[in-house]
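User: Fold both of these, please.

Assistant: Here is the first one.
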Amino acid sequence: MSQQQKFSLPFMSSTDHQSTPHITNNNVDDLVETQEAVVETEREKITQLSLSDIGYWLDQKEIKNVIVVSGAGVSVSAGIPDFRTPGSGLYDNLDKYNLPFPEAVFDLNFFKSNPQPFCSLAREIWPGKYCPTLTHAFIKLLQDRGILLRNYTQNIDGLEVLAGVDPDKVIECHGHFRSAKCVDCKTPFDADVCRDMMAQGKVPTCHFCRDIPITHTVVDTGNPDVTGDREEISFQRGLVKPDIVFFGESLPQKVKDSIQQDLLACDLLIVMGTSLTVYPVALLPLLVPDYCPRVLFNRELVGDFCGNTNDDEGDSSFRALRDVFSSADCDDSVRKLCQLSGWEHDLDGLYQAIRAKYGHLAPKEEPPVVEDEEAPPLEVEDAVDAILAHTPDLTDEEEVAQQPLKKQKVDDESHSPFRFVSFNETECN
C-alpha cells in the first residue's frame, strides 16, 4: 500500500470522474450524498493505530515529513524544571521574587515596571548549564534520517540546537537566549554582555533609550485572576532582555512564515512533553489534516488526543483512530518507538556522542544504590564451615580457656528462641 493510499481518503477515482455526467442543480445533492457515503465507507476500514504501526512505517521509510511539537517535558531529565508541575514546576518556586502572580516574571508590562525578578531568574535558567536529553537526540535522529520537517518547540533552553539539530529545522516559538535587544527601540544588544550583566545582578539597558524619561501609564496588570485590574505603572525606558517571547509579545515571524506549508506537508505529528495549554502553539495538533497520524508522548492525556474532547461529531471519533498516546516520560517513549523501528542503536550512538561533548553540563546524579545479592540457601554444615574459615586458630592455652565458655554457650542456645537452624528451614504458625 502506498503512502498516498494509506493516508488519503479517495472521493472519486479518475474513471468515476470521467463517467460522471455534467453536474446540474438537480443532481448535485445526489452526488454529494454519494461522495459522503464513499468517505464513510473508507473511514470504517480504518482501525486504531498503535505505536507499533508508527514504528513499522518509520522502519519501512513510509514517513517523509515529521513535525515535532515539544514542551518543557523533553528537558526535565536534563535537570531543567517544567513550568506547571505542582511542587516542582518553575511557577511553584518563584516566591522569593514576590511576584503578584507567577506568570508575571515573563510579562512584558511587569518587566518594564520591575525588571529585577526576571534578571535574577535569568541567571538560573540561562542556557549553558545543561546537557541535551535522549529525546533531543531523537529529534536529531529524525533529521539525520532526512524526515524532520520541523521542530516547533515551546522551550527557551536551546537544547535542540545544542544537540545538533539544524537551526533552520527548529522554530523556537517562545524565543531563545542567543540574541538580545532593547524592548523599546529594538536595537540589538550583545547577548554575552546581557548574560554577564544579569549574572552580576545588573539590569542591562540600551545605549540609545536609557536616558529617555520614565513614562507613567495606566494598564492592565495582566493578572488573569482579576478582571479589570488596572493601575498606574512607571515604565523604565531602554530595558534590554534576551529574545525570548514574553506575554504581550508576538510570536517570531518565522512561525507565521512556516506553519501553513508545514502543516499541509506533515504526514506524522509527534507531540512531546507539553500540557498544550499555551496558545497559539496548542493549536498545532488541531490544524493537521484528519488523516495525519498524531503521536503524544506525555505523562497525561492532553488536548483532543484520543477523543479527549467534548465534541460529539463523527469526525472526532475518526480523528481518535489516528492518534497514539504513550503515557510515560519522553525519554522512555522515544526509546520504545526506536526499538519498534529498529533505530535504538542509532539513537544510543547519537546520545553517547552528545554526552561525550556536553556531559560536563549534565546535573550530578547520585550514585546508584547497589543492593546486596540474596545469598543462596546454606545447610548447617556449610554455614559452620564458612564461619570456621574466618575464625583464627587458637593456641593450646587459649583452647583450654575457651572450653567452659563454649559449654555455657551451647547450654544457652539450646533454650534460646534464636537457636541456630538451617537457612532452608521455614516455620509456619
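And the second sequence with its predicted structure:
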Amino acid sequence: VKGPVDPTTHLQISCVNMVSKETGRLYDAVVAYFGAEGSFTQFICPAKSMDRPSLVEIGNELSIDYIIPASVCHKLGDGRQQFAISAILALLDEFSTSSLMMKDKSHRPGVSVTLDLDIIKPCYAGEKVRLVGICDKIGKSIAFISMEIRSTNGELLARGKHIKFVKMGWIWDLLTSFLLFPLMLVLLEYFLSSKKNKRASEASTVESQVGHIFDVLKLENVLDPSALFLADASDDGASKKKKSKRKVVPVFAEGESCCSLRVNRSLSNVLGAMHGGAIAAAAEEASRRHISQSTKKSNNTAFVIDSMSVTYLSPTKGELVIAVKDDAASLVRGEKVVEGRVLSRKTGQVCAAFKCSW
C-alpha cells in the first residue's frame, strides 16, 4: 500500500486475509496466553468479541474488528450502555501489546509505563468497532504505541497512547532469534493447545459468576485511611517473626476519598500482578464515587469520564488503597479533573497514579 491509508478503505479491505501466516499464528498464541486461566483479559476480550478473520496487517499497523460486550459498559439514564473509559484503556493495553509483539523483531511484550486515552465520540454495547494498533517507535528499552478505535465507516471514536519498557534481557533475545523463534512458537502452540479445554471451562465459569468487570473489583469505601495504615504499622512493629521493608504511612488531604480492594486472580495478569486494565477500572470506579459524593450527582447516570491517564510505578499486588481528590490546578482553570494514587497497604508506597477528566 503506497501513501496514506484512507480509514474507510482500511476497513473495507479487512475482509481479505492480509496478515502473514507467522503473524497470525503468533497473534493467536499471544491472545491465548494472556487470556489464560481466568485472568482479567477474559473480561475485556471474551471469545466472541474479537473477530479473528478480520485481522489486518499493513506496515506498522495491526487492526481487528471488536464487538463491544455489555460487561464492559456503564448503563446511562436513557438505558443505553456506554463503553467505559477504563475498559477501553484495558483494551488499549491488550491490543497495543499484541501489536508490539507482532512488529518487534524480538516479539517483546514489555511492561506498561503510561496509558493515556481520550474519548472523541461515545460507543455502546453491541456495536462493532475497529481496533487499530500503531507501533510509532520501538527502541532497545522503550516502545511507543498508538491505538485508535474507529466505527465501521471509519469515524474516529477514541485515541490512546501506550508507552512500554521493553528491555527483556539477552535470554529473551536469544529465544526469539531468527533461528530459535520458529521452534519456540511451535512449543508455545503445543502448550496452549493442551490447556485449551481447561481455559475454556474456567473462562465460562468466571464470566457466569462475575459478568461485569466492575463487579469483580469489590471496592469498599474507607472513611479513615490514615488510621488504617497506622494500625498496620503498629502491627508490623509488634511482630518480629520476619523482617520486611519499613512501612511508609501516607498523608491524606482533606476531601480525599478512599477505597480499598484486594488483588485476586480475576484482577491479575499472567504474571500474578494486578492487570494494568484492572488498575484503570479501579481508578475509574473510585473516581466516579468521589465525583458522585462531591457533586451530589447519581453515580451511574449524571456524568461520563471522557479522558484518562494512568502512570504505572511498580507491580501491584495484595491489598490496595485508592485515594482520589479534586485537582486543585484544574479547579482554578474551571476544568473538571480528579487525580488519584494507588497505594500498597503493605508498604504504603504509591504503585500507580492517575488523572480523569469529566
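Residues 32 and 193 are 9 Å apart (CA to CA).
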